[in-house]
Amino acid sequence: METSTDTRRLRDALGAYPTGVTVVTTRGPDGRAVGLTVNSFASLSLEPPLLLWSLANRSPNRRAFRCASHFAINVLAADQEALARSFANPAVADKFDGVAWQPSHAHGVPLLAGALAHFVCECRDAIEAGDHTLLIGRVEQHVRVAGEPLVFHAGRFAALR
User: Fold this and answer.
1) What pLDDT is attached to residue 159?
2) Where are the domains of the chain?
3) Three-class SS state of 108
4) Hey, which residues does 74 pair with through a beta bridge?
């Protein structure tokens, strides 16, 4: 069994666990749409309905999410790999340029077209843990449509087939 704390080896070992792919969105303090690709999303509780995800403390979007009252989790479909790559790319200045989306009814957070599910959440807590911050949200609205999810495994995007 590997006991090394080497970061690359740890990432490789964590990559053995397949995850879904999401884009988490909000509105920045200036009202602009903000979003990033995240695979650290999980259900925390059904009663009350709570979700969590983690944000790297070095993320340029940290302030926007820490100041936001609401965020949305957009669960990506198998055909949305290009969208996931764009929202993950720090070189893309305007992640929403050319992207079809609409604001949520109650709070105006961006909901991406074609996503399999949307969860609009009220920000409840932010817990600093190591080099990330865990963000916990209470689900206020959600919707799901039929389709196959985009997954991430062993450093690659994939589809369930």
Assistant:
1) 80
2) 7-159
3) coil
4) 23, 118
